[in-house]
Amino acid sequence: MSDSFAATFKTGPISQLLTPCLLLDEIKLRRNLDRLDERLAGLGVTLRPHLKTAKSVDVARLAVPHRKAPATVSTLMEAEYFAAEGMHDLLYAVGIAPAKLDRVGAIRRRYKAALSIILDSVEQAEAVTEWCRRSGDKLPVFIEIDCDGHRSGVQPGETERLVAIGRILHEGGAILRGVMTHAGESYNLNDPKALTAAAETERAGAVSAAEALRAAGLPCPVVSVGSTPTAHFARNLEGVTEVRAGVYMFSDLVQAGIGVCGVEDIALSVLATVIGHQRSKGWIIVDAGWMAMSRDRGTASQTVDQGYGVVCDLAGTPYPDLIMPGANQEHGVLALRPGSNAALPDLKLGDKVRILPNHACATGAQHDRYHVVHGAEADVKAIWPRINGW
Predict the structure, then answer these.
(1) Residue 6 has pLDDT above 50, yes or no
(2) 160 and 287 share a domain?
C-alpha cells in the first residue's frame, strides 16, 4: 500500500478527508438492524441478512452476530470473504452457472462452509447432480420460485416442472434444502396496502411451492422469502421459515420513496467537496459525479425524483430542496429542486457536503471502504474495508 493511499485510511475530522469518499453512520445502521430484527422476531421467522449491500465483515458482525447464523451473498467472492471470516450458513442467491460449481465446492471444502446454491431449471439440476456424483459433495440446493414475474424462477403453478427439478436433485445426490423467492416488483410500489399485498403474494407463492414438493414426497425444510419492502410490510408469514433482506441495513432514497424508511434513516452518504459555481444557472459544482454516486437513478420513476442524491450538511441534515440533478464522471451538479422557493445555500469553494444515495448497493460498489461516523458528530470513528468483484 502506497503512503498516499494509506494516508486516506485515517480517523479524525470529516473535514480533513479526501473526497469523494463513503460515510457510514453507525448509529443509524444499528437502528435499522434492530428495527427489522425485532419485527421479524415478532412474526416468528429467522432473518437471513443479505450481505450484498454491505460487503463488509465489520457490518456483518453487527447484522449476523453469531457465526453459525444464516446469511445471504450475491457473488462467490462474497461467499469466500465471509466464509473466511467464519460465517457458516451462506446462500449464494444467484442462479448457478455450471462452470461455477468447482469454485462453490472449493469454498465449501476450504472453509467447511454450508454454502448453498439456487436454480430454476431441469438443465441446472442435472448439471448439479452430475457434479455431485463426480465430486462426492452433496450440494445443498434451493429451487427459486418466481412469485411476481420480476426475474428468474419457477412459476408457483408450474407443479410438474417444480417436482421434476426437485426429484432430480433429491434422487441425484444433491440436498434439496428448500425453496426461495424474491418479491422484486415490490420496489415499484409505494402504497402500504399494495406492499402488504405483495408480501402476501410472495409468501403464498413460496409456501404453495413447498407444499407441492412435500405432496410429491420430496423434502422442503426451508421456505425462504425476501425483499426489504416486503420484509417491512408483511403481516403474515405462516409457512415461511426465513426472510432475506439487505438494503434495510443502510436504507436509501429509493426505500424512502417506497415508504420503508424516512430520509433521516439513511445511514450511507458520499462526502464531496465544492469545487466551483455556475451562479447564473444556480449550480454548485462538487467533486463527486456518477463514479462516486453510481448511475442509479432509481427515484426517477417514483413520485419524488431525487436526481442523483439529496444534499446534506456535514451533520447529515438535508439542505431544503437541494439535490444533485446532474452528474458527469467526476463532477456533480447541485441545484434546487425544480419549482422550489428555497434559497440556495451559501456553499463556498472547499466546503464539504454529504449526499444521500438513491441505491445504497450501487453507491457502495463505487468505494472500497466506509468512514464510520456517529450521528452528527464531526469525527470519523473507524475505517471499515469493503470488497467488490465477483
Answers:
(1) no
(2) no
Closest CA to 156 of 183, 128, 176, 188: 183
Q: What is the DSSP letter of 74?
A: S
**Cα–Cα distance measured from residue 220 to residue 180, given in angstroms and rounded to the nearest whole number:** 10
CA nearest to 138, candidates 94, 172, 90, 164: 172
Residues 142 and 204 in one domain: yes
For the chain, how long is the longest CA-to-CA vector?
Answer: 72
165 and 213 within one domain: yes
Determine what percent of the chain falls in helix, strand and coil, rounding each to the nearest 5. 35, 25, 40
Model confidence at 251: pLDDT above 50: yes
Residues 225 and 357 in one domain: no
Q: Assess contact for 202 and 227: CB atoms under 8 A.
A: yes
Q: How confident is the model at residue 281 (pLDDT cuts 50, 70, 90)?
A: very high
- For the domain that residue 313 is a member of, what is the CATH number? 2.40.37.20
Nearest in space to 154 (alpha carbons), one of 19, 34, 163: 163
CA distances from 70 to 36, 37, 150, 232, 244 (A): 15, 13, 25, 19, 10
Which amino acid is residue 253, in one-letter code?
A: L
Within a domain: 234:
yes
Range of the domain at 340: 3-22+260-385
Q: For residue 12, what pLDDT is reported?
A: 87
Q: Residue 195 belongs to a domain with what CATH number?
A: 3.20.20.10
Do 52 and 125 sit in the same domain of this protein?
yes
pLDDT at 167 over 70: yes
Look up residue 226 and give its three cell numbers: 425476501
Does residue 162 contact residue 153 with C-beta atoms inside 8 Å? no
pLDDT at 378: 87
Mean pLDDT of the chain: 96
Q: Cell numbers of 173, please? A: 445426490
Q: How far, CA to CA in Å, does 26 sit from each of 245, 339, 369? A: 18, 35, 14
Q: What is the pLDDT of residue 4?
A: 41
pLDDT of residue 333: 98
Verify that 152 and 265 share a domain, yes or no: no
